[in-house]
Amino acid sequence: MNIICKTVFKKLHIMFPIQFKNIRILISLFILVTANTVLNSGSIYAQSIHSEKSVQKRISTDLFGVFFEDINYAADGGLYAELVQNRSFEYSPADHTGWNPFTAWEYITPGYAYGNISVASNQPVHENNPHYVVLTIEEPAKEGVGLKNAGFNGIPLISGDTYLFSIYIRQLAGAAIPVTIQLTGRDGKVNAETKIVTDSDQWKKYTAVLKAGATDDSASLVIIAKAKGVIALDEVSLFPQNTYKNEPNGLRNDIAGTIAAIKPRFIRFPGGCLVHGDGLGNMYRWKNTIGPVEQRLQQKNIWGYHQSVGLGFFEYFRFCEDIGAEPLPVLPAAVCCQNSGGSWRIGGTGQHGLALQEMGDYIQDVLDLIEYANGPANSVWGAKRAAAGHPLPFNLKYIGIGNEDQQSDTFRERFKLIQEAVKQHYPAINVVGTVGWSPDGTEFTQGWQFGKQQKVEILDEHYYMNPDWFLRNQHRYDQYDRSGPKVYIGEYASRGNTLYNALCEAAYMTSIEKNGDIVQLASYAPLLARKGNTQWNPNLIYFDQTNVYPTINYYVQQLFGNNSGNRYYSHIVTGLNDSSIAASCVTDSLTGDLILKIVNVEDTLHMVHVNLAAFRNLEKNAVVTVLSGRPQTINNVTGVTNIVPVVTAIQTTKTFDWNLPPYSFTILRWKQKSKQ
Ligand code: AHR
Which class is 2-59+567-672 in CATH? Predict the structure, then answer.
């Protein structure tokens, strides 16, 4: 550098003799400052990277979102804040071996009281909710006869918080019956109590508010009838008043808040395999999931438990709106899962399609969903949304049709009918098609051919692969045809929750950003899992009744979600290998910020070189966020310190070298200088 400077100064003397002294001084100063910056940074690369021109392009503004599936108790016993398990006595052996309408309930006869309970189904609260309990109180004694529900492994209570109780009761025999409602602690002591008195021989909803006297992680709800007689009970509910954004029939504050903290640009719901279901009768039908909760049609969950559908399409749309995410509902392509009745490989009943004469009604259901989301409040389905408390549209712009369906003629025929009807009635809606369950192979190839032929706007790829696959495949989307369908990477994960897994995913996500002109949407899967109730591992967020446990993979998603942009720049960071050392650079036009993401999946320090010459008007101060640690660490494992992002600040020059710690994900973020 010194030699170059000296040579340039000599030339300046020749070009600008003594009478042009001032120009000579100015040019010399400029060269010195530039040289200093380069020398101070110690960078030899910074001089040369101008030859590799930075190319910029617009990328998707919806790029990183989340995929919610009711798997691992993600809905009932999870995000849905209902604290009573099997609240409508609809559990059955079809849901899970050994389950029945009394599952999660205990018949109690404290003291000398006696009576009996049975299940009945004549004149139910609603035909969609057929089973209820008949409680006969033969001898109430002092303590009464009743039922107890311990929720999902215990009802969590917070001292001073209020809980909304409700129940449907029909008096079948005897005079008015006083009923005591209690929240009892792990130790059996009464934590909160209230009373109602039955006064109707028709189904009537009774409500009460209970205030917890003490914090308890394992309380129970007790309902005790204290006079002779017979009553029918159904739809027994207990909600914390403090739900996410205080929405009625709402979501668990802590879990919803953890999802919201990702700042996902979209939420795909309600699955996954749950969508196409185990047999035609088990396909997810969105219309069964709206309206008053006691009138919704519940069903078996393909993952081996039960769907109360208390968390239904209205609640999903509302959650999307609450967190500023685009809704991406997925509906079945009128075929059930090819693994129905057990895997097709081992002789299950396989994929079936709705009879073609039923397709008219089915397609109408799909169109009605779009009207439910976007239609005016005086349209047939828009009115149902308005009746639920949301007269304004939800502004749906994506709809998924099908999930990982086998590319059979049965599937294609039905998909085509649905897709063409959607486009005919709602040309602005983007249809998301499906291309199987792996990153290549027959289903994938045929799915893409069919999707292109059908001019589907977006195709949904799924892959669960080893971490090293994610390192090796960072050029996957570089060559994708930019004139065909866009890509939704609807499900991906690297089969583990270690820091190493999370970093491989982070490295891959920089390549997704790089290809954000063709990749429209991407979501890690699955999102949620209740500890002790998992059907799938790994997941992004674990929880139990009182706590939420974000994985390291979660922090990677959160860092991308909170540092997204809408314009991508190449060649800003050099010294990469696009595998174990990867980076991306974006700007965000909303904030004006410049954001670099750099990943080191190696066990040694690695130096990269940053050149910000392409950007004007940046602040010198940058916020630096680093996620790093020992590669095999898994958060929330006893005895291991959790790995979380650490935030600091630095001052930078236009060009500089940056040392990446071993096994690290670093984000550097600059603001624009404010205009005076
Ligand atoms: O994410 C878990 C499951 O994986 C999804 O339900 C399915 O789409 C995929 O096979």
Answer: mainly beta
